[in-house]
Amino acid sequence: MINRILLVTIFTVFFSYATIAQSVTGLWGVTNVSVGDETMTPVAKWFQFKEDGTATGGNGWTKNTVGTWTYSQEAQELLATNDIGTKDEYGAFKVTFAGDTMRWNRMEDDMPVVVTLIPIDDMPPAPADLVKGLWDLTSVQDKSGQEVADYDTSSQQFIFIRPDMRFRFRNTDGEVTNGFWHMDGHRPILTLINYDRSINNQTFNVTVERKSMILKSRNEDGLTYRYSRIQEFPE
User: Fold this and answer.
1) Is domain 2-119 given the CATH code 3.50.50.60 in the classification?
2) C-alpha span between 131 and 150 (Å, rounded)
């Protein structure tokens, strides 16, 4: 009788631990991060917790977290390390589950931080991943949405957004410039920083749909540029 009770107890503890561990392990996408009263959700943020105790994370297809993780069943706390980042001084997250949703809670600088995650099958692409490539200008619209028919009559303009964070741009006059590009970590906002510092930085709201890209200028002109993806440089 005692052996039977002991066996049931061991099985129950093991099953409970396996259920919790399985809930934490896997690939998770971050859907919301709130800090105090503000929402500060990184774009395409994900974490992966493996059964061997290793953990990785990143934004889109870029990995920026490599470390380990431990989970306290008794305290329901998750503690993760990042060997390639700065030291996390805020300690473990309190973990709760609601259906398929996992939430992390802790205090940072006297403000409550809540991270909401859901299980995902693949690492989500970020706008910084989708904009890479060679793009040919197809049309331009003004602030009112009217097409600017005479903007690029000789079909000169293109932009090559390289994976090494550099870009090559040819304007409507056929002049080629080069520089660096940067994508905001929380919003799909692209900034082009020209090597020639006499040229002002250009900032755009970005939308990428399969083989098309829309750049809406955040500068005074407010123009909207529509590009299509191409495989060869235009002549």
Assistant:
1) no
2) 26
